[in-house]
């Protein structure tokens, strides 16, 4: 089975690394992007995209619209997220073509489940009780502390 590739686009380095670590634990290869242009470039070679709306250089909404306008990426699963409260970021994300919108802070276990079952369309790998507890606690503490608390996935 081919390893799925997921782009994680977030300008906050700690949150980006935490998201990448959580997604890598689902068995996916992760491409990290710190800005919109890097997200767009990576998405062209990915099986799914998880990105913040507020990316520098090119917003996540612009990246999403650009991908949806390209014939080969109209079905690419896209998850958008934001902590924004103005101008209904959920509606903006879905209107731009995102499949799913998550409001920050969101449970990391929800993202892992979403990647495993909805976006990648394969059964989620078994999650150890210890990792599930780490995921549950990640939203309650800062991203930097969560990043230190959640171990990296073993390399394949």
Structure description:
The protein is of the alpha/beta class and 156 residues long. It has one domain (5-147): Rossmann fold, CATH 3.40.50.2300. 43% of the residues lie in helices and 15% in strands. It is built from seven helices and five strands, in the order βαβαβαβαβααα. It has helices at residues 13-24, 36-43, 60-69, 89-96, 108-119, 129-138, 143-149, and strands spanning 5-9, 29-33, 48-52, 78-82, 100-103. A five-stranded parallel β-sheet has the order 2-1-3-4-5, with helices on both faces. Helix 2 runs parallel beside helix 3. The radius of gyration is 15 Å and the shape is globular.
Mean pLDDT: 83
Poorly predicted runs:
none
Give the termini separation.
13 Å
| Derived structural class | alpha/beta
Strand order, largest beta sheet: 2-1-3-4-5
CATH class category label: Alpha Beta
Main sheet properties? 5 strands, parallel
Roughly what percent helix?
Answer: 40-55%
Task: Compute the number of structural domains.
Answer: 1
Strand content: 15-25%
What are the defining features of this structure?
7 helices, alpha/beta, single chain, globular, 156 residues, Rossmann fold
Quick structural gist:
This protein is α/β, with parallel strands linked by helices and 156 residues long.
Summarize the topology.
Elements: E1 5-9, H1 13-24, E2 29-33, H2 36-43, E3 48-52, H3 60-69, E4 78-82, H4 89-96, E5 100-103, H5 108-119, H6 129-138, H7 143-149
Parallel strand pairs: 1-2, 1-3, 3-4, 4-5
Helix pairs in contact: 1-7, 2-3, 6-7
């Amino acid at each position: 089975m081919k390893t799925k590739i997921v782009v994680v686009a977030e300008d906050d380095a700690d949150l980006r690394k935490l998201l990448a670590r959580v997604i890598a634990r689902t068995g996916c290869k992760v491409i990290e992007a710190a800005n919109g242009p890097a997200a767009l470039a990576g998405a062209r070679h990915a099986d799914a995209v998880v990105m913040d709306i507020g990316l520098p250089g090119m917003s996540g909404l612009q990246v999403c619209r650009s991908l949806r306008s390209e014939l080969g990426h109209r079905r690419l699963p896209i998850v958008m997220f934001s902590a924004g409260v103005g101008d209904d970021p959920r509606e903006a994300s879905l209107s731009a073509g995102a499949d799913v919108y998550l409001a920050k802070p969101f449970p990391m276990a929800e993202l892992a489940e979403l990647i495993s079952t909805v976006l990648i369309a394969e059964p989620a790998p078994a999650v150890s009780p210890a990792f599930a507890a780490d995921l549950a606690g990640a939203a309650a503490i800062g991203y930097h502390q969560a990043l230190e608390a959640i171990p990296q996935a073993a390399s394949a």
